[in-house]
Structure formats: C-alpha cells, structure tokens
C-alpha cells in the first residue's frame, strides 16, 4: 500500500475519465436523508403525559431507492431537501400540530402516514424513472419512533 500522498492534480472529465464511465453500475440503490423539525401538540382521549400540550424535536428519516442515472446519481440530495422544506417543514416546523394537520390525533403513527402522502406526491412529480419512497421513520423522541414501509402503503 502506498503511503498517503496529497494529489497534485484533479481528475478532469474528458481527459482522465469519460462521460460514459460516470455510471459504474445499473443496480437499484437506496439513499437516505434525515431532517428535524420542532413542533407542539397534545393527544385527545389519552390518559398519559401527552394529553397536555408539549413539544418535540422530531427527526424524520427518508429512505428512497432507484437506479443511478448516467452520472451515477439516484436523486440529488438537494431535491430531497427541497421537498422536505416545502412539503413538511413549511407546514409543521414550530407549529401547533393539532391546528395544521388534518383532523386526527397527532400521534407519530398518524403523522407518518400524512408525511408519506406529502412526500410521495412530490417524488412522483420529479419524473425520475423507478425512483420510489421505500421507508420513513419519524422519531418523536430519541427512543420513540414510528416507521412505515412502502409495501404497507400499497396494501
């Protein structure tokens, strides 16, 4: 093994690597992006601490899969961020969830289905062949979370 060396030149497209070499394979690959948002809520018809108004720093983990394009990318991570910011964060961050979500008890189990619907709608609009939402995990606390898989939404 060669000792570590600082590169003296950068690889140049068209000279050191060709455009048709950028896609290394044609396999399905998963990509994951995580986000947080802060919100307050309370639960109805529940006799525990969560019946009182309180807040969480939610953490949302988005799993997508697809086949790499001609430059080796499934979906630009910036696109996932844009979708999250527009469809989830803009509606839920620093908000009272009982007011901004459709009529429901604002449990993680209910919220994750609403989030799936919002994300799925935007992912479809990207028109990326074979790109699909595979799984979501919504952390309400560091140790409590709900998750949802694509096949469960297709039932």
From TrEMBL:
SUPFAM superfamilies: Tetrahydrobiopterin biosynthesis enzymes-like. It is an enzyme of class 4 (lyase). Pfam families: PTPS. Its cofactor is Zn(2+). Its EC number is 4.1.2.50. It catalyses: 7,8-dihydroneopterin 3'-triphosphate + H2O = 6-carboxy-5,6,7,8-tetrahydropterin + triphosphate + acetaldehyde + 2 H(+). It comes from the Bacteria. InterPro entries: 6-PTP_synth/QueD, 6-PTP_synth/QueD_sf. Keywords: Lyase, Metal-binding, Zinc. Pathway: Purine metabolism; 7-cyano-7-deazaguanine biosynthesis. One of its GO terms (molecular function) is 6-carboxytetrahydropterin synthase activity. Belongs to the PTPS family. QueD subfamily. PANTHER family: 6-PYRUVOYL TETRAHYDROBIOPTERIN SYNTHASE (PTHR12589:SF7), PYRUVOYL TETRAHYDROBIOPTERIN SYNTHASE (PTHR12589). This is 6-carboxy-5,6,7,8-tetrahydropterin synthase. It comes from Ammoniphilus oxalaticus.
């Amino acid at each position: 093994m060669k000792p570590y060396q600082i590169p003296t030149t950068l690889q140049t497209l068209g000279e050191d690597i060709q455009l048709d070499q950028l896609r290394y394979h044609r396999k399905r690959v998963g990509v994951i992006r995580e986000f947080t948002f802060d919100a307050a809520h309370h639960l109805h018809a529940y006799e525990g601490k969560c019946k009182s108004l309180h807040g969480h720093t939610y953490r949302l983990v988005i799993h997508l899969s697809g086949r790499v394009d001609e430059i080796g990318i499934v979906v630009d991570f910036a696109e996932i961020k844009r979708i999250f910011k527009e469809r989830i964060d803009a509606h839920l961050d620093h908000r009272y969830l009982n007011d901004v979500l459709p009529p429901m008890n604002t449990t993680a189990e209910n919220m994750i289905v609403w989030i799936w619907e919002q994300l799925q709608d935007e992912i479809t609009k990207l028109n990326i062949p074979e790109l699909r939402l595979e799984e979501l995990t919504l952390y309400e606390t560091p140790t409590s979370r709900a998750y949802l898989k694509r096949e469960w939404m297709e039932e």
